[in-house]
Amino acid sequence: MDLRTTINEALKQAMKDKAVARLATLRLINAAIKDKEIAARGSEREETVTDGDILAILGKMTKQRQESARVYEEGSRLDLAERELEEITVIKEFLPRQLDQDEVAKAIRKAVESTGAGSIRDMGKVMGELKGKYTGRMDFGKVGPMVKDQLCAASGGC
Question: Which structural domains are found in the chain, ordered by start?
Fold first, then answer.
């Protein structure tokens, strides 16, 4: 079963269960997917939204909510922060398991080897390789500096 079908099934179940907060979050996910489809229609890429696209959408939604929760906590709006954290919980149900630090480091080493990267100029190749294989499974904002460090070490400094 593809990711979109899984999300739609969860949406139907939330309607049956009358789970209001869960239903609202699932509707937000569906709306984001439909927005992506509409945007793809106007471009040269006339294909449907793939599971990779959906994983990217879910990752973005998670980051947005984490940032919002942090801002709400700083502003002493714990009720709103709690709602954002509840939405994150629902969104994460559809994301694959996140790689731990050791797995990320191993994936970076593997990507560097497979692309033949030898300097910081090859960072785009390495990041492209990682995004192709690990979308939704690692935080690329944190991975970027790790890739840079490894490439700098491999080339003898930046």
Answer: 3-92 (1.10.1510.10), 101-155 (1.10.10.410)
> What is the SS3 string spanning the chain?
CCHHHHHHHHHHHHHHHCCHHHHHHHHHHHHHHHHHHHHHHHCCCCCCCCHHHHHHHHHHHHHHHHHHHHHHHHCCCHHHHHHHHHHHHHHHCCCCCCCCHHHHHHHHHHHHHHHCCCCHHHHHHHHHHHHHHHCCCCCHHHHHHHHHHHHHHHHCCC
Q: Are 81 and 69 in contact (CB under 8 A)?
A: yes
Half-sphere exposure of 110 (CA within 13 A, CB side): 10
Q: Is 132 buried (19+), middle (13-18) or exposed (0-12) by CB count in 10 A?
A: exposed
pLDDT per residue of the chain (158 residues) written in tens, 0 to 9: 799 999 999 999 999 999 999 999 999 999 999 999 888 777 665 567 888 889 889 989 999 999 999 999 999 999 999 999 999 999 999 988 888 899 999 999 999 899 888 888 889 999 999 988 887 788 888 899 999 988 888 777 76
What the block records as the tokens of 20 is 């209001």
